[in-house]
Specification:
The chain is an alpha/beta fold. The protein has nine helices and eleven strands. The longest helix is centred in the middle third of the chain and has 22 residues. Bound molecules: zinc ion.
């Protein structure tokens, strides 16, 4: 067959519009990231079954529930290897129960009953093969989350593609509440050159993109940090009276973009990060 084919399952707004990717090869299907809510996970599972090929493996890019929550549902038919960079697997172990406590009251029965943890941790730059598919993991440390990574997929003579998790949101307001915006900016600096030979970038939120998506994400974060810096006055929190201004400014920066509630969600985390970090020297 031609291919591989990359199919996308995208959640609606309650599920954060998160993308799960189904990489269909001759011998079966590899799923990259697994969605957040039970109804979406069931739909993703149905999509896997509709391809009428075995599920070969699941890859998880980073330790946020909209990416790892669905593993439990997908392995109900048959347990498969669940790969993640070692730091990502470790972080999922550390955050999954706290995330459940934080979000279960909001989502109720839509939050999966159990967490299935990655069972196959990978060293940085390790390769995993499924027939003609080769995935190479790149472990990046804290950026959008406490432990980010991406996977490059090579298949035959085709240009490689990459599944970049949430290292760049494409046309949506990003999650900044883990408070690593400085680390994220540093990571973005290297990604564009590191992934220069990659044809298509498949983000966790938004449409497939080229390497310019990293520069866009960088611009967004720089602007957001400057606003938060001014509105928090170095106090480690953005006061309620300044929230509307932050919201309006970021919505003007990315007109019509979804996930607007992310703007306020991360404000105090970034304010705290800025308050704790030494100010850049003048003129830098
Ligand atoms: Zn996400």
């Amino acid at each position: 067959m031609a291919g591989p084919f990359v199919h996308t399952y995208r959640a609606a707004e309650p599920g954060l519009h998160v993308n799960s990717y189904l990489v269909e090869a001759e011998a079966g299907v590899v799923v990259v990231d697994t969605n957040l809510l039970v109804s979406d996970i069931e739909a993703l599972h149905a999509r896997v079954r509709a391809l009428n090929k075995p599920l070969l493996a699941i890859l998880v890019t980073h330790p946020h529930p909209d990416h790892f929550n669905g593993v439990f549902g997908l392995v109900q038919d048959s347990e498969v290897p669940v790969y993640a960079a070692a730091s990502v697997a470790r972080a999922i172990g550390e955050v999954a129960e706290a995330k459940r406590e934080q979000w279960s009251p909001t989502y109720g029965a839509e939050w999966p009953a159990k967490t299935y943890y990655p069972n196959s941790p990978l060293a940085n730059r390790a390769e995993v093969r499924f027939g003609e598919l080769t995935f190479t993991v790149r472990e990046l440390g804290p950026a959008e989350s406490h432990a980010d990574s991406y996977f490059v997929l090579s298949a035959g003579g085709r240009a490689p593609v990459a599944f970049i998790g949430d290292l760049a949101f494409n046309g949506m307001h990003p999650y900044t509440a883990d408070g690593h915006s400085a680390g994220w900016l540093a990571t973005l600096d290297v990604l564009a050159s590191e992934l220069a030979d990659v044809g298509t970038l498949y983000p966790g939120h938004g449409d497939p993109a080229g390497p310019g998506v990293f520069a866009e994400q960088r611009r967004y974060l720089l602007y957001y940090r400057e606003l938060v810096r001014r509105l928090s006055g170095g106090q480690g929190t953005v006061p309620p009276s300044a929230r509307a201004e932050l919201d309006a400014a970021m919505q003007a920066f990315l007109p019509g973009a979804p996930l607007t509630w992310m703007i306020g969600l991360g404000a105090d985390a970034v304010a705290g990060e800025l308050a704790a970090a030494p100010a850049a020297p003048a003129g830098s």
